[in-house]
């Protein structure tokens, strides 16, 4: 009887240990931080930034499936889909969300007005005019749950370079989406800079990517000597159409996106978006590691990246001197 009693005690103890181990493993899984990454579309600028975020999080010890759970979402340019994604992120009880692009930031911020989760944003031209409650660079000038970095494209520098390459440049056309605050912010700077440089900026607005080619070709028929595209998610998604129009008119395109440099695109100057992503990833890791949100403001961070395409010179009716910029 004594032996049976001892065996029963040992078996019971073993079962309790197994149950405790399972509970501890379950508890560990539950404690894994949940990170959502939400971009408005799959395109090279946002993909590069996402790669930078991944690298930074991994370097800081946030490895998907091991030390955290990372889920990625893309609206593929569709705003209603973006709204559903944002609501899903909130309902799924993520601990933190990282958004890429101004539209993704705006959609997420609107869904997250109550501050259910921490929101970090990047690849945003001008967060101060994006309508999400950020009024300036200091920590007290933003919602307590919302922080990130702006990366205002070097619009003025783009026009300075164009003027250096072609001192006779007098007329530049631009296609821009009138519903995007990031695009409007770039165009406002372009207007001011063009006035200083003696350049007429001919603007035509679009509401969707289906209008881009026709609009760009209308600009070329109005005698513009070059086309320019600033920070515009809609137009950049249809950049092939702008390049097509420039090619047909034998004029160059210059942009604030250093990644689509082919065809008649003469140069692009903008941010090194992989580095922008790394900065946002490290900011996210700082918050997850326990740093106070009060330590962080909303700064403008633009690690400059410039690409020049000499092959574009072969199809230009006017003279553009790349060496003028190199000097």
Can you characterise this structure?
This protein has 327 residues and is of the alpha/beta class. It has two domains: 32-151 and 272-303, Rossmann fold, CATH 3.40.50.2300; 155-271 and 306-326, Rossmann fold (3-Layer(aba) Sandwich). 44% of the residues lie in helices and 20% in strands. It contains eleven helices and twelve strands. The chain has helices spanning 2-31, 44-59, 79-91, 102-111, 155-165, 181-197, 212-221, 233-237, 239-249, 273-288, 322-326, and strands at 33-39, 68-74, 96-100, 118-122, 146-150, 171-177, 200-206, 226-229, 253-255, 265-271, 299-300, 304-308. The strands form two sheets. The protein has a six-stranded parallel beta sheet, sandwiched between helices. Strands 7-6-8-9-10-12 form a six-stranded mixed beta sheet, sandwiched between helices. α2 runs parallel beside α10, α3 (79-91) packs across α4 (102-111) and α7 (212-221) runs parallel beside α9. The chain starts with a helix and ends with a helix. The model is unreliable at 10-16 and 22-29 (pLDDT under 50).
Element order: H for helix, E for strand:
HEHEHEHEEHEHEHEHHEEHEEH
Measured between the Cα atoms of the first and last residue, the distance is: 98 Å
Beta-strand residue percentage: 15-25%
**What is the share of helical residues?**
40-55%
Structural class: alpha/beta
Low-confidence stretches: 10-16, 22-29
Give the name of the CATH architecture of the largest domain.
3-Layer(aba) Sandwich
Total beta strands: 12
CATH homology group of the largest domain: Response regulator
Round the Cα radius of gyration to an integer and report it: 25 Å
Kindly report the average pLDDT value: 91
What summary fits the major beta sheet?
A: 6 strands, parallel
Number of domains: 2
So what's the overall shape? Answer: elongated
The CATH topology of the largest domain corresponds to Rossmann fold
CATH class of the largest domain: Alpha Beta
Helical segment count:
11
Strand arrangement within the widest β-sheet reads 2-1-3-4-5-11
């Amino acid at each position: 009887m004594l032996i049976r009693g001892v065996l029963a005690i040992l078996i019971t103890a073993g079962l309790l240990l197994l149950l405790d181990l399972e509970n501890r493993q379950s508890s560990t899984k539950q404690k894994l931080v949940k990170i959502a990454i939400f971009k408005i579309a799959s395109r090279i600028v946002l993909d590069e930034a996402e790669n930078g975020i991944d690298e930074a999080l991994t370097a800081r010890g946030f490895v998907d499936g091991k030390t955290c759970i990372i889920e990625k979402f893309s609206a593929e340019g569709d705003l209603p889909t973006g709204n559903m994604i944002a609501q899903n992120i909130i309902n799924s009880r993520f601990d933190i969300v990282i958004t890429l692009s101004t539209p993704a930031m705006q959609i997420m911020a609107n869904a997250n007005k109550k501050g259910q989760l921490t929101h970090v944003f990047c690849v945003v031209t001008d967060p101060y005019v994006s309508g999400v409650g950020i009024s300036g660079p200091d920590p007290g000038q933003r919602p307590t749950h919302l922080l990130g970095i702006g990366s205002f494209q070097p619009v003025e520098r783009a026009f300075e370079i164009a003027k250096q390459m072609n001192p006779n440049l007098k007329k530049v056309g631009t296609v821009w989406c009138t519903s995007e605050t990031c695009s409007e912010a770039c165009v406002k700077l372009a207007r001011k800079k063009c006035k200083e440089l003696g350049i007429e900026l001919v603007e035509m607005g679009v509401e969707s990517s289906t209008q881009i080619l026709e609009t760009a070709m209308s600009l070329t028929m109005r005698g513009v000597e070059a086309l320019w595209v600033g920070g515009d998610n809609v137009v950049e998604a249809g950049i092939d159409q702008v390049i097509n129009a420039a090619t047909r008119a034998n004029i160059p395109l210059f942009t604030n996106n250093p990644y689509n440099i082919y065809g008649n695109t003469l140069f692009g100057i903008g941010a090194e978006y992989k580095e922008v992503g790394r900065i946002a990833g490290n900011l996210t890791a700082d918050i997850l590691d326990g740093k106070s949100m009060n330590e962080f403001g909303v700064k403008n961070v633009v690690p400059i990246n410039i690409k020049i395409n000499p092959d574009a010179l072969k199809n230009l009716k006017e003279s553009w001197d790349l060496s003028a910029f190199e000097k």
